Amino acid sequence: MMAKLPRWHRVLFSPACERNKGPILAVLQDWLPAHAKVLEIGSGSGQHAIYFCQQIAGLTWQASERQESLMDLQAQLEVQSPTLPPAIALDVTDAGQWPSQSFDAVFSANTCHIMPAAAVPHLLAGASRVLRPSGLLLLYGPFHDGGVHTAASNAAFDQHLRSLDPAMGLRDAIELVQLAQNLDLECLADLSLPANNRMLVLGRQ
Ligand SMILES: C[S@@+](CC[C@H](N)C(=O)[O-])C[C@H]1O[C@@H](n2cnc3c(N)ncnc32)[C@H](O)[C@@H]1O
Hints:
Blueprint: H1 15-31, E1 37-40, H2 47-55, E2 60-62, E3 64-65, H3 67-80, E4 88-89, E5 103-109, H4 120-130, E6 131-141, E7 143-144, H5 152-164, E8 171-172, H6 173-181, E9 186-193, E10 197-203
Parallel strand pairs: 1-2, 1-5, 3-4, 5-6, 7-8
Antiparallel strand pairs: 6-10, 9-10
Helix pairs in contact: 1-2
The structure holds S-adenosylmethionine.
S-adenosylmethionine (SAM) is lined by residues 14, 16-17, 41-45, 48, 65-66, 69, 90-93, 109-111, 114-115, 119.
């Protein structure tokens, strides 16, 4: 039987994670080396961390969250996946919060359109600092291409986000790839995933 969460923690659950974790797992199985050490940015509910560690033997997954959400994430991980390393506080814009260790991959799902546009270059730069020479940055989510949406649902989602907060909104994959190239990270793959989402796989060739 699963242990109970302490009463003072919010129970976190993302239906989107439940839908996308299978397709994302298939990408990770294709691209991650054996015994990979992965840093996740914006782990949210922890569902991805928990599921991928259950499914990929030998995976080391370092979950992270912004300080204000860290305790809720950690409570979730302790109950559902006690062998995961404790989640760390990481706001991509705070260079001092990035870990000093290096990783085979940095993974982040559905964060680029939530953080302000100005924070995205910090995500890319931080990832490039912590990645091993052959490391990969895996960015999952909906993106547009130079303002052209790949689906009507993405255009509507973009509008919805901007109406909630003008700092949020879908990001331009072309711009992201250009920013990554300036950091010596090439676009190795741009994979179409269900519900008009994509996985950008960026790395040094
Ligand atoms: C929609 S949630 C996605 C959570 C989880 N990755 C998922 O797929 O369900 C957006 C996430 O972006 C994170 N985020 C927003 N701004 C951030 C920043 N500046 N640094 C790190 N994470 C950030 C939030 O804390 C939140 O976990």
